[in-house]
Amino acid sequence: MFIDPIQLMQFGEGFGVKKVGSYLEVGQGTKSSTGQTVFADIFQNAINDVITTEDEYQKAKYMLATGQTDDPHTEPIAAAKAQLSLDLLIQLRNKALDAYNEVMRINL
């Protein structure tokens, strides 16, 4: 009996995996006229992501509860995405508040 060795699977667009982007692009908002990232856009993007993922979760939950879905695993995946996006927003808020408090402690 011959056992095939484990081989690396090639995932791509055909497997439902979407390209997320470069790690260099993470957290970038829109650029101002001077070419710098606008700080408020980072938070606005995070808030929009929370709203979008929460809507997707509510839709998946409704579809599962009414039996309109063939994929029962989409609801827990949508719940995890919604929770992660909310956790990211909370961490962004905490870091912004920590930075603000640090600036306020500076003695001039």
Apparent shape:
extended
Structural class: mainly alpha
In angstroms, what separates the terminal alpha carbons? Answer: 78 Å
Radius of gyration: 20 Å
* Largest sheet composition: none
Helix content: 40-55%
The percentage of residues in β strands lies in under 5%
> Spans with pLDDT under 50 lasting ≥5 residues?
none
H/E series, N to C?
Answer: HH
- Kindly state the mean pLDDT as a whole number? 82
What report would you give on this structure?
With about 110 residues, the chain is mostly helical. It has a domain at about 40-108. The chain has helices at about 40-65, 75-105. Helix 1 packs antiparallel against helix 2 (about 75-105). It is extended and about 75 Å long. The model has no long low-confidence stretch (mean pLDDT about 80).
Feature tags:
single chain; mainly alpha; extended
In short:
54% of the residues lie in helices and 0% in strands.
List the helices and strands and how they pair.
Layout lengths: L38 H27 L8 H31 L4
Helix pairs in contact: 1-2
